[in-house]
Amino acid sequence: MNALATCPECGGISKWNPPFYVCSVCGLALRRQEYERMVDKQKEALWEAQEEQNEGTDKKRKRNREYLDWYLGSKK
Ligand SMILES: [Zn+2]
Fold it and tell me: Rounded to the nearest whole angstrom, what is the distance from the C-alpha of residue 11 to the centroid of ligand 1?
């Protein structure tokens, strides 16, 4: 088990202080399981972001933007 980890919230250094990882920057305290779940989620998000970049998503982003405009406009 690593005594030091990266805070999934702010990227600061989390220290293993049983039974929690405690972030020295933002003070976030996570149990090991919670910590690992958050890191997994973060990795997934990162991976998805990379996927999108690889696809060259200017088009996609534009479509999302248009959809958002439509959505916001339709609410007025
Ligand atoms: Zn933090």
Answer: 6
Token look-up 């293993």 returns 16
Tens-of-pLDDT digits for all 76 residues of the chain? 567 899 988 999 999 999 999 999 999 999 999 999 998 998 999 999 998 888 876 766 777 888 888 888 876 5
CB 14, CB 21: distance < 8 Å: yes
43 CA → ligand 1 middle, Å: 16
Residue numbers of the domain that contains 68: 4-75
Task: Please count the structural domains in the chain.
Answer: 1
63 CA to middle of ligand 1, Å? 34
Write the burial class of residue 12 (CB in 10 Å: 0-12 exposed, 13-18 middle, 19+ buried): middle
How many angstroms does the Cα of residue 50 sit away from the middle of ligand 1?
Answer: 23
